[in-house]
Structure formats: C-alpha cells, structure tokens
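Handout, section 4.2: multi-component inputs.
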Amino acid sequence: MRIKVLAFATFREILGKEKEVDLPGSASVKELLEALAATSPRFKEAAFEPSGALRDYVLLMVNRKRIDPEQDLSRILAEGDELAVFPPLAGG
Amino acid sequence: MLSEEETRRYARQTLLFGEEGQEKLKRSSVFIAGAGGLGSAIAFYMAAAGFGRIRIVDCDAVDLSNLNRQILHAQVDLGRAKALSAYDALSGINPEIEVEAVVERISQDNIKELLQGCDLIMDGMDNFPMRYLLNRAALESGRPLFHGAISGYQGQATTIIPGRTACLSCLFPRAPPPATFPALGSTCGVIGSIEVTEAVKYVTGKGRLLENRLLLWDGLDSRLEEMAYEPNASCRECSDVSAKAVGFTQIGQR
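Output:
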C-alpha cells in the first residue's frame, strides 16, 4: 500500500516536503508514523516522546482533514491516502 | 459619511467594496495583540486601510534584534515602549484613524478590559499560552479571532468565528514547547497581510473566510497549502462556551 506523506515546518526539514511510503498490507496512522520513525531517527526524536508516545502537539491530517491523535491513531489508511504531519508554528 | 479627504485616500479600495464598505471599516474597532513582527504587518495594513479605531497592546521595549522584522519601529525607537513607537508609526500613516497604544502585558486579569469597545481580535502574539487567552476571550465575547503564526520561512493562518467555526484549541489542543524561533520580516508580512485581508473581508462582508481552514505558507517552496478542520467535541475551550457565544450578535457583519 502506498501512502503520500506531506511534512511541514520542522518536520519538512527532516522528511522533505513530500514522500511516498510503501507499507505491507493494511496499516494504521500510528503504524505509518512508526515506519517513518524507523527510517529517520531525527523524525523519531522530533515527533515522539522518549516513552514512544506521539508528542501531544503534533498535528495530523488525513487527506487534508484534521484527525484527532488521541482517538484516530488506529485509523486504517487506504491506498493513495495522504497523511500530513507537522508541529504548530508559534512565532510572531 | 466619508470626508472628501477620506474619499480620496481610500479611492483605490472603495473600487473593491464601495464607500459603504469603507464606512464599515471606519466604524470598526480592532484589538491588535502584540506590536512585534506579525503585529507590525497587521497594524500597518489596518491603519492604512482605515479601520477606524486601533488599540495595539505590547509590554516590551524595542530592541535592536527586533528591527529585522518589526517594521513599526525604527532605529530611533530603540529602548522605547513598542506600543508607543507603534502609535507614532500608525498615526503617521493615517491621521484619520484613532490609535490607542497600551503598554501592558495581556493577561487573564486584564484581557476583558483591554478588549472593551473592540470588535475584532488580531493575533500578533509569539506564543501559544497568549493565543489560548485570546481564543478564550474570543469565545466568551463572540468576537472573531484572526490567527497567524510564523517560524522562519513558514507561516500559518486561520479565522475563528465563535459560534460558527471550530476554535483555536480545537485545531491546536496542545502548545508546542517554548522556543526561540527564526523570524524573517517578509514571512511576518505574508501572514500578517493574510490576517488583515481576512479582517477586511469579515467587516465588508466580501469573499470566503478561512473558516475551519488552516492555511500553511512555505516561503522556501513558495507554496500555500490548505487543511480542513472541524469543531472538536472534546475541546476543553469551546465545548462549554460555544453555546453561550452563539447568543452574541455577530459584530462587524453590519
């Protein structure tokens, strides 16, 4: 299954702005994020707590619509889905 | 009624929304939270556009490291309160409007008082705790909040209309950790300008607002992206006050 990953802000500096990830069989949002973390230690450090939990401020959008990381990490992705992942910007 | 001078001053934008639209801007009072990078761009364009009353609030003094982006302030303002320097700059651009400078730190204790008489809330802040404060004040009073934030070449913007859209906490339930962000003046210009465009549209009733839409600007790639979001049923801020806010008159939509 192929999923497009869009990264913004500091995550874009780590992952590049856009990448395609191939996952075997079906996969959840959480599994996709873990697959990204497995290939990029910098992303792992930026997006995950040392405990392994996703940092609570990370924003996730599936097909450009916000999902709730507290409830929707187990959502199963479909072929061609697009996951956007980014931290909020805070400067002014 | 616009004066003869105002008619001439705003001639190029009354082509967009008529003298009627300009009068709506003239009758609007805006609260600009912060006179930093974003606040500078916001304040300049709001003053020039003729928003009738501008209250700009900032507790800091101008530092040399601000001048790469905070275009309200000049070399001669170093050490002065930013709000006062903003007052001079804004009154200089447009003597037709009323500018009020407040040298104060916005807090839970004074926010209600600071917002008194203002119809719109402009986000020129540089941290999330302050933005949550603005968000709550917007929800409790039914005032629209025009959000923007930047870091380096990147920026984000959205428009919160209490009772009609999700709130800032629905979109950003948790704040990122405090940090010193890279800041480029032109990125503040892009995002501040988007916030002001939203405010102009809101007041004059033109176009489609950034309601439940987050705009993401990447200056390195010169690209804008849009993401959708919805009210969050478990939102700690608006799930209990939105019902109250719906009862408020939509100010600005006159």
